[in-house]
Amino acid sequence: MLPSFSHAAVPYNQEMKRLLLTIALALAGTAVAFAQQGPPMGGGYEQMQQARQQFRAQVLAALTPAHRQLVASVIGSLAVAEHPDPQAAAKQLDAALSGSEKNAILAADKQMHDQMQQMFDQSGRGRYGGRGGDETPDAGQILLTLGQVGGMRGRP
To answer: Fewer CB near the terminus (10 Å): N or C of the chain?
Structure first.
């Protein structure tokens, strides 16, 4: 079941301004985080992009068509919600997934994290900051990252 959101009292232009402001803030935050950490030296940026694309393809391939549609719907609802609740959305997605879907998503996430860490180790840049500490996300949280600009791995 999708979360319900009320838009009754918000005029279209004001809602668009809020959406554009939200997107601008998200892009600014991503740019600041990336500038602080930066990609590995050399051709590492292309390798990182390739790893992210491979991750995305693996995660989407693990989902049934109905669950792929659910992910799109939940991410879209969060994008236009006046008071989005990413934690509730992640729980909703996680609860809907089968055990095999969850396992495939968690395996793809671990594989990408390990690839990124290896790239950072090889470049001498230290620890890959894709996760907050030693936090292990659930499959629902991972699915929400697919809706983030550039597929960055921040967590809800």
So the answer is: N
Residue 11 burial (CB < 10 Å; 0-12/13-18/19+)? exposed
Q: How much is the pTM?
A: 0.64
How far, in Å, CA of 46 to CA of 39, rounded?
A: 9
Picking from 140, 54, 47, the residue whose alpha carbon sits closest to that of residue 101 is: 140
pLDDT digits (tens, 9 = 90+) for 121-138: 777 666 555 555 557 789
List, in sequence order, every beta strand (DSSP E) within 62-134: none
Question: Beta-carbon neighbour count of residue 118 at 10 Å?
Answer: 14
Q: 140, 91 in Cβ contact below 8 A?
A: yes
Cα–Cα distance between 12 and 106 in angstroms, integer? 39
